[in-house]
Amino acid sequence: MVAAGAAAAVAAWVASADSPELWEALEVLMAAAQQPSHSLVLSAVLCLLSAAAAVLLYRWWSTAPVYLLDFSVRRPDDSWQTTRLAAYFRAAAKDFGRTELDFQAKMLWSSAMGNETYVPPWMLVEAGECEDTSLEKARLEFDMVVVEAVRDLLAKTGVTPDEIGVIVVNCSLFCPTPSLSAHIINQLNMSPTTLSYNLGGMGCSASPIAVDLARKVLELTPNTYALVVSTENITQNKYKGKERSMLIPNVLFRAGGAAMLLTNKRSEAWRCKYRLGVMVRTNLSADPVAYQCCWEMEDSEGHRGVRLSRDLIKVAGKALKSNLTLLGPKVLPLSEKAAFVVNLLRRKLGQKLPPYVPNFTKAADHICIHTGGRGVIDAIQSELGLSDDYVEPSRAALYRYGNVSSSSCWYVLSFIESFRGVKKGDRVLQLAFGSGFKVNSVVWIANRSFRQEHHAWQGFNLEAMYDDLAGLDAELKNVLQLSEQREAERACDTHPPVYTELMWGVAASPLLPAGDGKGGARRGGWLQGRRGGGVPGALLRVALNLALLLLLALALQNRSRAYFARQRAAWAGGSAAGGGGHAVALHAPGGAPGGGAGGGEPDPAWLPPPWVGSPPALDATACTPQLLVIGGMKCGTSALFHYLNGTVPRSPKAAKAPGASWSPPAFGDDQVFLNGTPASAAYCARFYGLPDAARRFHPGVIGSIVTKEVHFFDQDPVTVATRSREYFAKFAGVAPGDDPAARSCAWPAAAGLSPGDAPGLVRMEATVMYMPHPPAARLVADTLPGVRLVALLREPATRALSSINMVAQRGDFAELKGLARASPAYNAAWRAVVVRELRKEMGTVAACFAAGDARADADARIAAVDACMLDGRPRLSERVLDVHLGMYAHHLERWLRVFPADRLLVWSTKAFKEAPWHHMQQLVTWLGLDPAASKARGDFLKLHKRTYPEASLPRGFVSELAAFYAPHNDRLFALLESHGYAAAAAQLRAAWPLELAATIERLEER
After folding, report:
1. What is the pLDDT of residues 966-979, one digit of tens each?
2. Which of 39, 52, 680, 748 to pair with 807, CA 20 to 30 A apart?
C-alpha cells in the first residue's frame, strides 16, 4: 500500500506540482506510514520523493518563463505622412467611377483614421504618375520600417545581433526569396547559428502566432534571445481594380511594423518588461464561410487584391466567442466563473436570460484591440461591455497609424506605456483577428512598474484627436459634395500632374475648411478649377449647389489662366521689343549706374554678364515670389538675402527668450509666424531683426515674411501640391483668413512699409536645398512659371570643408560633444571626423555617379544618380552629404532643362564677396528695377563668419578632395558654355583655383 501510494505520489509530482492526484496519493501514503512495520519502506519512499524533487527542480530550471525584454514600434519618416483628403484625391485621380469613389470616401472618413498616417512615398503619387510597386521598393519599405525598428530595439536593450538565437518574422502578403527573416540576418550580420522562421499568409492575427512559435523554440533552446518581427508590406499589395469588396484594404491599411525581443534568460528577468502568461489560439479554417471571408484573389480584370466578404463581422464574432470561451477559465477570477455558471444553470432551467458576458476588465488591466477599423473596436467594446477608457489606446493607435496589420496591438501597448504606464503585476490582454479565420489572445504580466515614452507617440495630442473625430461627419459630407463636381479622371499614365493645376492666390473652398495652422494635417485649398460633372439628381437644391460650385471652379480656372497669359505675354513682349528684357551693359571700372563713386569696395577688373539673353518683365502685382536664390549652401546666399531684405540675423542664443527653448523655423510653422500677434512679431524681431528701409539695398525688393529659407520646394510633391496657399501667404504680408490689419512679423511700420506698398514689391526667398533637391526644378517651374533664379557657386572642396565645419560646430558629431572648442582633444577629434566623413561621402557619391554614368541616356543618368542619392527618401534634406552638394553640374543640368537660360543668374562666390555692390546692382537691373534707387556703395556686413579649429588637415587631403571634384567641375564648365554662360564659366575657372590655394594654405599641415 505504501509503495503504491509512493509511486502515485511521485508520478503525480513529476507530472504537475498542482495536480489534485498528488494530494490524494500523499494522503494514502501518510495513512500507511502510521504503521510501525513500514518504517523501512517509508525511508525508501522518502528517498524516492527526494529524487522526484530533484527531477522537478531540474525541470523547473530548464523550462524558464518567457519574458518580453522590450519592444519597438516604428514611426516612419514624416515625409511618409498622408492626410485623408490627400488619399481621397489620389483615389480620385485614378480611373474610378462616382460609385467607387464615394464608397472609398465613406470608408475613409468613417474609419476614424487621422491626418498623419503613413504610406511609402513611392505610393504617394498624383495624377499623371504611377506608383512604383517594384520588388525593390517593397524591400525598401521593409528596410525603412522593420529593419530600423529592429535597430532601435537592439539599441534600447543593448543586445547585439550575434546574441540572438532565434528570429521569427511574420508578414502576410510579401514573401520574397530569400525570406524576410534571412534579410534581417543579412542586414544585421547575425550569427550563422541563428534559427530563422518566416510566417506568411497568417493575416493580422499573426503576431501572437509568431510569439507562440518563439516561445516553443525557446523551450528547446535555453538561455538565449528570440527576435519577433510583425509587419505588413503595402507596396506590392495595393488593389488597382474597382471591386468594392476589394477596395477596403486600400483605404484602411498603412505602413508600420514592430519588433519584440523575448528571452528565457533568468539573469535578464530583473529588467524585462513583461512575462508571457496565457495564450489562446482559435482557428475556424474548417468552416468554408470563415475560410473565405478574407480571400486573396484576382478580379474579373485580373487585378490582384484581398476581398473582404459580408460575412466577415459575423465570422469574427463567432471566432471571438470561441476564443474567449477558452480564455475565460484561464484568466477570470472565481467570482466571474461562478456568475457564468449560475447564469448557465438558470437558462438551462428555462429562465429567459441573456447569456452572461464575463467582465474581462477583472482579468486584464489593459486591453489592446487590433486596430482593424472603428467598427471592429466599437463591436468589441459593445460585446465585452468595456468603458471608453479601456478602448481609448486602440482608438488612438487607429487614428494615428491606421490599420498596421499584425503590429497594431504593439502600437496600442506603446500608447499605454507612453501615456499611462504600467504597474508591476498588471495584466495586458492583446486581441488579434486575422484571415483564416483566426482570433488569437495573449496575456502579458508586467514584471515591473514603469512608464516609457515611445518615439512613435511624441507630440501626439489626445484632445486634438477627439476634436478632429467630432468633425468627421461634416467633413465627409463636404467631400461627397465635392465628389459631385469631379468626373472620373483619366488613367495615371495620361493625366498631367496635379501640381500643374494649382491656383494662384486661390481662396478657401466653401466646401472644405481652411488649414488648421498646425502643419501636417491640411483640409483646405484643394478645389481644382477644371472639374465639371453633371447633376445626378432632380432636386432643385442639389442642382443649385452644383451650379454654384461649377461657377466658382470656372472663375478660379480663368484666374489661373489669366495669370499664365500675362506671364507669356510679358515674356513675348520683352523679347520682341528688345527693351522689355532689361539686358545690362557691362560697367567700366570706376563707375556704375545709380551708386555714385562711394567707398568700401574696389571696382572689379571685369564683371561678366551673369545671364543669357533678355529675360521677360516681372509681374510685380501678384503676391507671389518672383526671385528664388536656389543655392548653394555655404556659398554666400545668406549675405545676398539679408543685403536685399535689410535684416541682420542674430544667433539662436541671442534670439532665445529668457527661459524659452529655441528651434529653427520650418515651413508650415504658422502658429508662430502667421498669426500676426505681438508675440510672433517679438519672436521675429529677436531672431531676424526687422526689415529696415535704411539697410535694404533697394526699396523694390523684399524677402518672405518669415525667414530666409522657406523650405517649400524641397518638400515632397504632395506637400507642394496641397499647401501652396500657405506658401504664397508668406509673401503677401497677411495670414490666410486673417484681418488684413493684422500684419505679420516682417511687415511692421518699422520696416518702412504700409499695406499699400506690398503689391509693387519684388518678393524673394533663398532656400539653398532647392538646387540639389531632384524634384525641385520641376515643382518650381510648374508652380512659379515666371520666377527668376540665382545660383552662387563656391569652389567645391572649399565649400565642402566649410559645410562640414558648420555641422561639427553645431554639435552633430558625437566625438566632439563635451570637448572644449580650443582644446587639443577637440582639434584632434575635429581633424579625424572631417577626414573620415568626407572620405566616406566621396565613396558614396562616386558610387552613385558611376551608376549614373553607366546609363547611355541623359535622363536615365540623372534619374539613376538622384535615386541613388535619395536612397529611398522623399527629400534630399533627410540625407545631406556635404560632398554631394558641390556637384554643381548635376544639379544645374536639371534646372536648365526646365528653365530658359535667361531666367538663371550664375555668380562666383569669390567674385560676389570681393565686389558685392556691383553684383547687387546687376541683380537689381536684371529684375527690371531702377538702379538709381539702390543704396550707395559702402561697407557690406559679413554674415555667418565661422572660424576653423586650430587643427591642420593631413597634407594633401584638400588636394585629394579637389581632385575628386575636378571631372565634375569640367562638366559644369561645359554645361554653362553650352547654354551660353561662357563668361560665367570663365569667371569660375579664374576664381576657383585661387579659392582652393587659399584653403590649402589655411587648413593643410605644412
Report:
1. 999 999 999 999 98
2. 680
